Every structure is written in structure tokens, then in C-alpha cells.
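Entry 14. Ran structure prediction on the chain below.
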Amino acid sequence: MNVANVVQKFGTDDFLERSWELPPEVIEPLRDHVKVGDDGWIIDSWPMTEQIAAIVQPWVTEHIDVASGAWLVGSWMRP
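Output, C-alpha cells:
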């Protein structure tokens, strides 16, 4: 299965505006904040919190505005 863990940013219209793929090494620190399957993929989508943002910010090229509610972390299948 070709799956990627990602950070997603949604626009004011609730459409996906941008996404960033996360490297495998970010999963262990995320385990305390999101549900991660045995295969290392994030299960479901999770709203961004200050704690999650601190972990994933190094791989995201924009400042994560947690208060906006526009940011999620999760996984998706690659084409």
C-alpha cells in the first residue's frame, strides 16, 4: 500500500489548499497525540494542536496557525 502521512491546510471554502508529506521519523513523536496504526500510518484526520504543530512544523513551509482550524494531520493513499 502506498500511503503518506501528511499535514493538510484548508482554505476558507473548506477545500484543500496545500499539503505536506511527513517523513517516517515524525511518527514516533506523534504517537502521544494521534492514533497511529501498527504499520506507521496515522489513522483518521486529527485537528492541529500546539503540540502536534511543534512536531510537524519543521516539515511545513508555512507557519501553522492552530487557532484558524484550517490545519489537519492524517494520512492518504498516494496515486
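The first helix runs from residue 27 to 30. Will compare against last week's run tomorrow.
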